[in-house]
Every structure is written in C-alpha cells, then in structure tokens.
Amino acid sequence: MLAKKELEQLIICVPTKILQDQMMAQENKAIQRVFGIEACRLKGPGSYIKLHAIYQSLRTQTDSALVIRSKMQLLVWLMETGTGDLDENKQKRRFES
C-alpha cells in the first residue's frame, strides 16, 4: 500500500531485472499518482552492449552464414539504438560477454 508523504526522491531496490520490469510496468503509474514523482530505472553495465566484444567478433573470420547474418543484424541495431540496452535486442546473448 502506498501512502502519500512529501518526497523528493523514492528509491526502490529489487533483486532481479524481471522484478524491475514488473515494477516499471505495474507500479510506475501508482508511484507517479500517489507521490507525484517521475520513475526511472537504473541498470548495471551488464545490461548494455560491450562494443569491444563486437569489435573482436567482427575481426574473427567465419564461414558460417548464420553467424554472418547475426553480425549484420547486430550492426543494423547498433545504428538504431540510442541506449545500447541489450533488452532492446533479440541477438543480445551472443555479445553479452
């Protein structure tokens, strides 16, 4: 239950990205309505593309058409993304490490 109180900032920590997604989807409007403050999400560096890993992958020669296609799709996504957030990209597992 949310109670109204004068606030400048409210911090809610959850242990997983799944719970973070649920909070932003389900509770965000209630937080804004009750407290009158904007909500935002903070993620760690593991949530974002590692350009060095992409660079190394592009330098690797491969004959696999599937891998080449995946690299091309990733390059297109890199031109479109404004954040580099891996949650935007379906190919994310290949370049997380």
Topology summary:
Layout: H1 17-35, H2 51-59, H3 65-80
Per DSSP, the total helix count is 3
Domain module tally:
2
**Outline type:** elongated
Low-confidence stretches: none
Task: Fill in the keyword field for this structure.
97 residues; mainly alpha
Explain what this protein looks like in three dimensions.
This protein has two domains: 12-42, no CATH class; 45-95, no CATH class. The protein is built from three helices and no strands. By secondary structure, the chain is mostly helical. The chain has helices at residues 17-35, 51-59, 65-80.
Brief synopsis:
This protein has about 100 residues and is mainly α. The protein has 3 helices and no strands.
